[in-house]
Amino acid sequence: MTTTCYSDLTKQITSNLAPLRTGVPQVMKSFSEMGRAAIADGALDAKTKELIALAIGVATRCDGCIGFHAKALVRLGATEAEVHETLGVAVYMGGGPSAMYAANAVAAFNEFAASALPAGS
Fold first, then answer.
1. Are the C-beta atoms of 6 and 67 separated by less than 8 Å?
2. Pairwise CA distance, residues 61 & 90, whole Å
3. Contact 58, 92 (CB under 8 A)
4. 54 φ/ψ angles, rounded to the nearest 5 degrees
5. Cα dihedral angle (40, 48, 89, 116), rounded to 10 degrees?
6. Distance in angstroms (rounded) separating the CA atoms of residues 26 and 3
7. pLDDT tens across 47-99, in order?
8. What is the CATH number of domain 6-116?
9. Is the whole-model pTM more than 0.90?
10. Cβ neighbours of residue 40 closer than 8 Å, sequence gap 6 or more
């Protein structure tokens, strides 16, 4: 059994992405911008969003995702307990959300939110 060194892995991935940044610069720039927008503080803070990203990385078995999001969580001051609880949810779910399920979740949330409004609102 080999052990992954996530520091080395993230450095290697960053290096391996260089040809894509040159070959498809607009795609890679757009992906980077999307990532910054997705993680930016909003209704959820950046740490919570990174915990979610870590859980998805685990659920989809993406070592690179695990490395990059674990690194970000350290930078954001996540506690070991927060990470453990997040990983408990990832184990429970056993899979990752997809765009179709995310869209359905938004529709369901909007439906329930609308039904919770007082009559005449």
1. yes
2. 11
3. no
4. -60, -45
5. -80
6. 35
7. 999 999 988 887 877 888 888 888 888 889 888 889 888 877 877 776 544 33
8. 1.20.1290.10
9. no
10. 46
